[in-house]
Structure to design on (205 residues):
């Protein structure tokens, strides 16, 4: 059972990698920075995970990454647009490229990690790209496809520091403690949701 996780070093991706390795799946991650991925995986004791250099904006790299996979998870994210990275390129066209290349490779199951409120008609470029991403994947992938829309959890250092400072600013030490509890609660919920979805969507029944 070979599973390719595009974005497998991210907040969500690395949790999923750990979960699937524990299920004895053959796991590959596809990211733009394979050296960083390799180091992070080694540090986490996950040396058996294969790393591909792939960018969802580059079709050939995606073709190589998904070859031979039973399931593909697209957990790539772009939260800000900068230097050639646009929401449209990653969340719409990139999602379509992953879906098309998965079809060409005969992949049975595809999981698109999308965003809450994804809406192809939204005025927000981010929400619109997420909505259009879901649409193009639905059109491109005829097999079993799941769309995951997770509640937000503070996964990045910046988010965590911002949440704690905001709590401190608004509520003093009590607000700071509340922010920690809220952060913990959200992360727990995030992990529970991932645990619940993973067997059904990624692993064969
Ligand atoms: N974190 C949350 O609270 C949360 C909540 C709801 C939904 N989500 C969704 O979960 C998904 C993953 O989010 P995350 O927070 O885990 O993201 P993240 O921590 O920012 O990680 C992003 C991952 O995508 C890879 N990546 C970025 N651009 C890429 C590209 N063009 N081609 C290939 N790989 C690329 C990154 O590795 P490289 O930089 O090496 O390429 C990294 O592995 C997103 O769809 C996000 O909307 C997250």
């Amino acid at each position: 059972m070979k599973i390719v996780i595009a974005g497998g070093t991210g907040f969500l991706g690395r949790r999923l990698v750990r979960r699937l390795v524990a299920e004895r799946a053959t796991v590959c991650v596809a990211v733009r920075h394979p050296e960083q991925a390799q180091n992070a995986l080694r540090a986490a004791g996950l040396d058996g995970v294969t790393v591909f250099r792939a960018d969802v904006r580059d079709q050939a790299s995606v073709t190589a990454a998904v070859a031979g996979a039973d399931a593909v998870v697209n957990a790539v994210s772009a939260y800000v647009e900068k230097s050639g990275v646009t929401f449209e390129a990653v969340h719409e066209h990139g999602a379509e490229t992953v879906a098309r290349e998965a079809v060409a490779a005969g992949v049975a199951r595809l999981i698109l990690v999308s965003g809450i409120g994804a809406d192809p008609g939204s005025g927000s470029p981010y929400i619109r790209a997420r909505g259009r991403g879901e649409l193009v994947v639905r059109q491109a992938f005829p097999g079993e496809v799941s769309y995951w829309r997770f509640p937000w959890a503070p996964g990045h250092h910046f988010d965590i520091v911002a949440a704690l400072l905001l709590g401190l600013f608004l509520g003093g030490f009590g607000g700071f403690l509340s922010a920690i509890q809220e952060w913990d609660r959200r992360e727990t919920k995030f992990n529970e949701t991932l645990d619940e979805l993973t067997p059904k969507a990624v692993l064969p029944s």
Observations:
- The two ends are 12 Å apart (CA to CA).
- Strands lie at 2-6, 26-31, 50-53, 71-74, 109-115, 144-150.
- The chain has a mean pLDDT of 92.
